From TrEMBL:
Name of this protein: ABC transmembrane type-1 domain-containing protein
GO CC annotation terms, alphabetical: plasma membrane
Organism of this sequence: Effrenium voratum
Bilayer-crossing regions: 24-45, 120-141, 153-176, 218-238, 268-291, 322-345
MF terms in GO: dipeptide transmembrane transporter activity
CDD domains: TM_PBP2 (cd06261)
Subcellular compartments: Cell membrane
Length: 353
């Protein structure tokens, strides 16, 4: 007799719980496999790079004895599979090694630099949602009108204009000429160190501490770089929202709702947009993840101390511990955001439950 038959004869139907358990188990297995794949890729990248990690630590003028001692200390004499297992074990303990560039543990550097990138990406994504979604819906509803053409042109420009050029122009106009916002950097030197870091996001920490002058200064510094990322974010979200809405507005159920005499706002936002929302969750999640990993140029132009600039500077200085640690954290964040998008997708769409 099968287990399912036994459970049914007991008077309680456990099949829904078994299905949930299978899905959770499958998700955990996929997460483990993704983690293994991600760590394997970052490990291989660190080993095939032409930079010598030993020379990066001891310098090119070190004696042979010092070089060999560090070579053994790093475990480079062991087989490659054993080096990978040691690498995995160190990561699970939160040990990414030390950075040659900063002299600090890589994990401490990541705790300092990653919140800065998270701050920019979050502001840009929120701006993209608040502006891009209504713009995309309006463009679809008013297809072929001036509003539609403007949204399409903005979407095209948002993907076409080089971010480094646009960032330098924005600095020249709004900072150097008009003096409307603060310049490069995350905060003025005068305000540095006033607020004790709790979350790592200066504006949140300043608000929690009641230091509103620090908050205003940090916000002024964040406006330009966040706006550069927001242009890309809202352009992509608006373009995809328009495309999804056009597809839904041409469906028969929309025509039926209009024939029944429902208000246009109800047809658009309650019926059509609810079906678009499921697709938009995936698009917004991918946009947020791409901003986290693709903000290197923005951080470089605005001297923003984020994880992208940290990885880039570490790469130029052959600081492979920092490169691998930063890349791994960004990759894990990407996976986590995708998992969160999938969870929200299941919550919004009853059919996925």
């Amino acid at each position: 007799m099968s287990d399912s038959s036994t459970l049914q004869r007991s008077g309680v139907d456990f099949r829904p719980y078994l299905d949930v358990a299978r899905k959770i188990g499958g998700g955990i297995v996929m997460l483990i496999l993704t983690f293994i794949g991600l760590t394997a890729i970052t490990f291989i990248i660190g080993r095939i790079m032409p930079n010598d990690p030993v020379v990066a630590i001891v310098g090119d003028r070190a004696s042979k004895e010092v070089y060999e001692a560090m070579y053994l200390q790093l475990g480079l004499d062991k087989p490659i599979w054993q080096q990978y297992l040691i690498f995995i074990g160190d990561i699970l303990r939160g040990d990414f090694g030390s950075s040659v560039m900063t002299g600090q543990p890589v994990l401490e550097d990541i705790k300092r630099f990653f919140p800065a990138t998270l701050e920019l990406a979050t502001i840009a994504t929120i701006a993209g949602i608040v502006i891009g979604v209504p713009a995309g819906v309006l463009a679809a509803v008013r297809q072929g009108t001036l509003i539609d053409h403007v949204v399409r042109i903005v979407g095209l420009l948002g993907h076409s204009i080089p971010i480094f050029w646009l960032g330098m122009v924005a600095l020249l106009v709004f900072y150097a000429k008009l003096d409307w916002v603060a310049g490069p950097g995350r905060i003025d030197f005068f305000y540095d160190g006033i607020v004790e870091p709790v979350t790592g996001v200066i504006m949140i920490d300043a608000a929690m501490a009641g230091e509103w002058d620090v908050f205003k200064n940090a916000l002024s510094h964040a406006i330009l770089p966040a706006s550069m990322l927001a242009i890309y974010s809202l352009a992509y979200i608006a373009r995809m929202t328009r495309s999804f809405m056009l597809d839904q507005l041409n469906q028969e159920y929309v025509l039926t709702a209009r024939v029944k005499g429902l208000r246009e706002g109800t047809v658009i936002w309650y019926h059509a947009f609810r079906n678009v929302l499921v697709q938009l969750i995936t698009i917004i999640g991918l946009t947020y993840a791409s901003l986290l990993e693709g903000s290197v140029l923005t951080e470089t132009v605005f001297a923003w101390p984020g994880i992208g600039q940290y990885i880039t500077n570490s790469l130029f200085n052959a600081d492979m511990n920092a490169v691998i640690g930063g890349t791994l954290v960004v990759g894990i964040s990407f996976v986590f955001i995708n998992m969160l998008s999938d969870l929200l997708y299941r919550i919004v769409d009853p059919r996925a439950k």
